[in-house]
Amino acid sequence: MNSELGSSADGDRGSDSGGSGRVLDIYPLSCYYFGSKDPILLKDETLADRILRMKSNYARYGLRTCVVAVILVELFKHPHLLLLQVKNSIYKLPGGRLRPGESEIDGLKRKLSHNLSVNEDVDGSDWEVGECLGMWWRPDFETLLYPYLPPNVKKPKECTKLFLVRLPPSRKFIVPKNLKLLAIPLCQLYENDKTYGPIIAGVPQLLSKFSFNVIDS
Predict the structure, then answer these.
(1) 184 - beta bridge partners?
(2) pTM of the model
(3) I want to staple 180 with a disulfide (CB 3.0 to 4.6 A). Which of 85, 128, 150, 164 is the partner?
(4) Segment 85-114, tens digit of pLDDT
(5) What's the CA gap between 60 and 37, in Å, rounded?
(6) Is the Cα dihedral 77, 81, 84, 89 positive or negative?
(7) Phi, psi angle pair for 174, to nearest 5°
(8) What pLDDT, on a 0 to 100 scale, did the predictor assign at position 2?
(9) Cα dist. 164→3, 151, 213 in Å?
């Protein structure tokens, strides 16, 4: 079951717990407010246009680094992952490409504020960015992403890093009107590459080291 959250309608929580694994606190969806703001500019380009743009940026800046957020809420007693949906078809983890010289944490906070906060000009200090859960590599411009860097690839073209972002007990999510914010259950994502792509479909496995502690509202 998909739950749409935002569109045009208006202590240490990751501490170790011995043999039982790491505990991650998640809060019910009802703890959060969801609203909308003005649309953002989306690139309308073909695959060939995207490859040309990637080649141009690589020639200028080198390796493209993207940072994305793994954000969880509880719904129906099950962890749900927050995803952005573009044009009612493409699913994305919140985040995006780093600017030249920008740190991974600062860049992710900037992208989260841009896509999910009422004021994108703030410094993003209210986002709690935690550990890097995984990395995916694009060996060449035309190839798919892989969860490892092939040993024969000396100059990869893109690296995408997934970071755990812990939510506070309450906050406001303000989403551009041309995007949708969805809560998708982890059980629906697992090995569902066809719908969500390999990065998102692999998130449940990355989270398998955690025990989820649902905090009642």
Answers:
(1) 81
(2) 0.88
(3) 85
(4) 998 889 999 999 999 999 999 999 999 999
(5) 33
(6) negative
(7) -115, 115
(8) 66
(9) 21, 27, 15
